[in-house]
Amino acid sequence: ARARQELERLSRVYPGAYEAELFLGMFALQKGERSEAIARWERFMARAPADQVPMQLRSAVMQLRAESGQG
User: Fold this and answer.
1) DSSP state at residue 48
2) Which parts of the chain register pLDDT below 70?
């Protein structure tokens, strides 16, 4: 819980710390919060340089969206 709080603070205080969104998305998915994971990963993909966004992440977001009816 502490790590998640620190990542949330990091994301708020330092908008350039886009990596925090990647990890917060992983935490959300582990807790079964698919919509939150999708939102976090989409923020990561919007903020991170394109060459730092793994193709697997794009695929995972598309799959989660389809499975949750958001696609």
Assistant:
1) S
2) 71
